């Protein structure tokens, strides 16, 4: 499988609980291109249940949207410069400044979740990403993210 966007994060920035490869207890979310959009797949472990065992905890859903959205923002910004993540030159890094999540229906446990990102708009320093999290082809949560380019 192609490398994921997160595989190109510098070692020192790879400790995120949601997506850092250097966090042994983390989720290791992996985001990739899906045409002009982005996609990640994730199967939650049973301990991430919500109020009932067969529904996923909302905090995990927000976390997946957060990590996928921030990685997608970086990828969209690279493509806008006709580059790919990991290409030569200074990496373009984004952090989440704002994330809105709408929980539309309970997210079932035991089913691979599909997280998608779509570029809404971009300016010099900000990227707005529309997000969805689906199970069995049904959107269970949607989100809107503002990611801001990280200056350090
Ligand atoms: C800071 C945490 C660092 C952690 C990550 C480290 C490095 C990142 C590097 C690479 C990425 C690689 C790995 C990342 C791993 C996981 C990522 C997963 C996603 C996350 O989990 S990431 C953690 C949660 N995330 C934060 O921990 C951010 C805390 N925060 C800040 O560090 C600052 O807040 C920052 C940098 C966002 C901006 O600060 P700043 O001083 O550089 O710039 P400024 O405030 O001027 O904002 C510039 C323009 O954005 C507008 N703006 C800002 N915030 C807004 C909001 N909430 N709503 C609407 N507009 C907003 C302003 O209004 C202005 O707009 P305008 O230019 O038009 O006036």
What does this structure look like?
This protein has 152 residues and is α+β, with helices and mostly antiparallel strands. It has one domain (5-149): Thiol Ester Dehydrase, Chain A, CATH 3.10.129.10. The chain is 15% helix and 34% strand. The protein is built from one helix and six strands, in the order ββαββββ. Strands 1-2-4-5-6-3 form a six-stranded antiparallel sheet, covered by helices on one side. The radius of gyration is 15 Å and the shape is globular. The N and C termini lie far apart (31 Å). The mean pLDDT is 97. Bound molecules: ligand 3IX.
Query: What would you say the CATH architecture is?
Result: Roll
Q: C-alpha Rg, in Å? A: 15 Å
Task: Determine the strand fraction and express it as a percent band.
Answer: 25-35%
Shape descriptor: globular
Blueprint of the fold:
Layout: E1 31-34, E2 37-42, H1 58-80, E3 94-103, E4 113-122, E5 126-135, E6 138-149
Antiparallel strand pairs: 1-2, 2-4, 3-6, 4-5, 5-6
The structure holds ligand 3IX.
Ligand 3IX binds next to helix 1, strand 3 and strand 6.
Quick overview of this protein structure:
The chain is of the alpha+beta class. It has one domain (5-149): Hotdog Thioesterase (Thiol Ester Dehydrase, Chain A).
Q: What are the main properties of this structure?
A:
6 strands; Thiol Ester Dehydrase, Chain A; about 150 residues; binds ligand 3IX; single chain
